Stage 0 sporulation protein A homolog
Amino acid sequence: MLHIAICDDEQKFTEQLHELLKHYEQEAGELFRITTFCDGSELIDHYDTTIDLIFLDIKMNKMNGFKTAELIRQKDSQVSIIFLTTLTQYGLEGYKYQATNYIIKPMKYARLKSEMDRWIETHRKNDVSSIIVTNDTGKYKIPLKSLRYVETFNRNLLLHTEDENIVCYKSMKEMEQELCDYSFARCHTSYIVNLFYIKGVKKLEVELITGQKLPISQPKRKSFMDQLTQYWGDML
């Protein structure tokens, strides 16, 4: 199922786009969950990181589409955004926010179908496994390819990604189970590491390509090295 959001302060247009998406859903044999928002502030206040694609109107009264996109990118770097506009000159500015495209209103079904066909094909090719993390500051979608390692932190977990460190309230056992089908391994009671980032191993220490060093506990060394050896063998 693909989660699609529509954010537009014109109710009539929102209803029209919703109907067009339902028509496309049936024609293409897809399954959509469609959520609508009447302005940018509502979308930000109730942002859901399971959203895959946002149709975002540029000109809205309370919060315009560009400001909304800027705030969305602080929460979610992966979601696709298609800007909606009545003026062509707005379109190019949207690419500053990694917009997928822009569509001129009013919208015809043929234009929507063309855009959705293109987006779904690209989305399926670039689909990135991710985990959802919730803490006191909000909800985050973390692509696994950006997660370097996980460590215990004040009875919680700290997820070290390429961009930031995020606190997670799950247990290490829960996190290990969630990551077990991917290229992650438990090297220590307090650490789970992404095997992609490992540069080398010296005795009881892992060196990452970033220069960081993590400990390996003696009880977990054999299991960890077996996983790493298999991973490196698969990569050759």
